[in-house]
UniProtKB/TrEMBL annotation:
<dbReference type="InterPro" id="IPR046357">
    <property type="entry name" value="PPIase_dom_sf"/>
</dbReference>
<keyword id="KW-0697">Rotamase</keyword>
<protein>
    <recommendedName>
        <fullName>peptidylprolyl isomerase</fullName>
        <ecNumber>5.2.1.8</ecNumber>
    </recommendedName>
</protein>
<keyword id="KW-0413">Isomerase</keyword>
<feature type="domain" description="PPIase FKBP-type">
    <location>
        <begin position="215"/>
        <end position="301"/>
    </location>
</feature>
<keyword id="KW-0812">Transmembrane</keyword>
<keyword id="KW-0472">Membrane</keyword>
<dbReference type="Pfam" id="PF00254">
    <property type="entry name" value="FKBP_C"/>
</dbReference>
<dbReference type="GO" id="GO:0003755">
    <property type="term" value="F:peptidyl-prolyl cis-trans isomerase activity"/>
</dbReference>
<feature type="transmembrane region" description="Helical">
    <location>
        <begin position="75"/>
        <end position="99"/>
    </location>
</feature>
<dbReference type="InterPro" id="IPR001179">
    <property type="entry name" value="PPIase_FKBP_dom"/>
</dbReference>
<keyword id="KW-1133">Transmembrane helix</keyword>
Length: 349
């Protein structure tokens, strides 16, 4: 018999079993594919439920694990600091390369020169205006000028308090009358010499007036201005008390004019820079600045004060007059102030 020959009954049975096996395999694959999504959803739901039931501290630690650590923050801050220092260093190096020390000196020198020119010009114009004002007197052959000015004094025996304006020389009464050439009986009717010292009023012989000595300290109130009108010092504002100065230690302008003054005097003094703070200035006084001082002498102390006659002799020698004109006296200062002070516009402060 041939080995390749087939038996019909047997072949049919084998073929039938093979087909049944294929159908079952196909059915299992279909069931597996249908149940896979369901299983994944079940697993996801189970994971979410487990996460919701997780300990809050564990969740916090897990979320914190995504934040930078303190070490990382520190490194970041140090990096920012180093970057800032690098920028500053580069800027400084660039500035030094562009501006050498010599250039900086030139810039500063140029600025100071500009200030000096500006304030010198302003001062020159101011002094030129003052020199044409007849209420001022010139100190020798300098650019220092001075004059007596007015002050307000209370009217005695009047309520409420009223004030009158008088020329601030102790030989002048509250009616702006000159009373300094004789001995007065003190009757109070305009024939006495009333001296204002602070708020008190004294009646005495004019020869008893005390004037600034050469060496002794002098106490005075002061208000000082720049030519722009800006005030740079005031004893009334600082502590309300008069300042005490030794004449020889003050600026040259004050060394010249203060010895001409007496207790009760209130003068306005114009000081050019060469007799004050010079081309460099000082504190609030700019380079080359002309200054205006209002000095009210309160007390000359007890160290060798000058008499009125001695101060007047100094005044006569300090003020140059035209040929044939009488020497300057305190009475002449009063007459100039009474005649011209009201219309004076040279010092508008």
């Amino acid at each position: 018999m041939n080995a390749s020959a087939t038996i019909p009954g047997v072949n049919v049975s084998v073929e039938l079993r093979r087909r049944v096996a294929q159908q079952r395999a196909t059915q299992r694959d279909s069931e597996a594919s249908n149940t896979a999504p369901h299983d994944s959803h079940v697993r996801l739901f189970q994971q979410e439920r487990n996460e919701s039931a997780e300990d809050p501290q564990v969740k916090l630690r897990r979320s914190a694990s995504f934040l930078p650590s303190s070490k990382e923050i520190g490194m970041l801050l140090w990096g920012c600091v180093l970057l800032f220092l690098l920028i500053v260093l580069v800027a400084q190096c660039g500035f030094k390369l562009y501006f050498s020390p010599t250039d900086m000196d030139k810039v500063e020198s140029g600025y100071m020169k500009h200030l000096h020119q500006h304030w010198s010009l302003m001062g020159d114009q101011f002094i030129a205006s003052v020199s044409k004002d007849p209420s001022f007197s010139r100190y020798k052959n300098t650019r220092i000028y001075f004059r007596a000015i007015k002050r307000s004094i209370p009217v005695p025996g009047v309520t409420p308090v009223q004030y009158v304006s008088k020329i601030s020389l102790p030989e002048v009464n509250s009616n702006n009358e000159w009373l300094g050439d004789g001995i007065w009986d003190g009757s109070g009717d305009g024939s006495s010499t009333n001296l204002e010292r602070g708020s008190s009023r004294l009646t005495r012989h004019v020869d008893s007036i005390r004037c600034v000595g050469e060496d002794g300290p002098v106490q005075f109130h002061v208000v000082a201005f720049l030519t722009s009108g800006v005030r740079f010092t005031s004893s009334y504002i600082l502590n309300g008390e008069p300042e005490s100065h030794v004449v020889k230690k003050h600026i040259k302008c004050m060394q010249a004019v203060l010895p001409l003054m007496c207790e009760g005097d209130k003068w306005e003094i114009v000081c050019p820079p060469e007799a004050a703070f010079g081309k460099n200035g000082e504190r609030d006084v700019p380079p080359g600045g002309t200054t205006i001082w209002r000095i009210s002498v309160e007390d000359v102390g007890s160290s060798k004060p000058r008499s009125r006659a001695e101060a007047e002799a100094l005044l006569s020698s300090a003020v140059l007059t035209a040929n044939g004109s009488p020497a300057m006296t305190r009475k002449h200062m009063f007459e100039k102030a009474r005649k011209y002070l009201a219309s004076s516009t040279s010092v508008s402060m």
